[in-house]
Amino acid sequence: MKNKVLSITIEILNNILKYELSGVIRYSHYALMIVGRDRLTLKKFFEEQATESLMHAQQAGDILTGLGGHPSVEISIIEETNQHAAIELLRESAEHEKTAVSLYKGLLEAVEGESILVEEFAREMIKSEEIHSMELSKMLKDYS
Question: What is the dihedral of CA 17, 89, 78, 96, to 10 degrees?
Fold first, then answer.
């Protein structure tokens, strides 16, 4: 990988790491705050999302350090809206997933033709985040 591409890739991976770690906090918060008729189902869903965000962060961090980068100890900014109704938490989750897709697409664009490993990681994460987006879209239909 060329130095410029490597530097950009490390920067993007660090942004992904920070974003996924913020997802751990975001989804853990949602699991704690959810109330109402769907609490048990959504609590479990948000806990699973938090676990998966941690896994994604660890995968990004492993690639980042494998490329010689230094993982950030920061997280992305999480806006606290104080809106804890199920529909609001699902909408916020949908926005979070949409942003994640764009981060991974940016990674894919940066490394195309440079690293099969990073390309495949990006594609797999795009697939995973698009599945989450689709599921959230289906869940939100119950609230329309």
Answer: 40
Q: What is the CATH number of domain 3-143?
A: 1.20.1260.10
This prediction has a pTM of 0.95
* pLDDT tens digits, one per residue of 44-95: 999 999 999 999 999 999 999 999 999 999 999 999 999 999 999 999 999 9
Domain spans of the chain, in order of start: 3-143
| CA 25/CA 28 separation, integer angstroms | 5
Phi-psi region of 69 (alpha: psi -120 to 50; beta: other; left: phi over 0): beta
The residues, ordered by sequence, that sit 6+ positions from 137 with a Cβ below 8 Å of its Cβ are 94
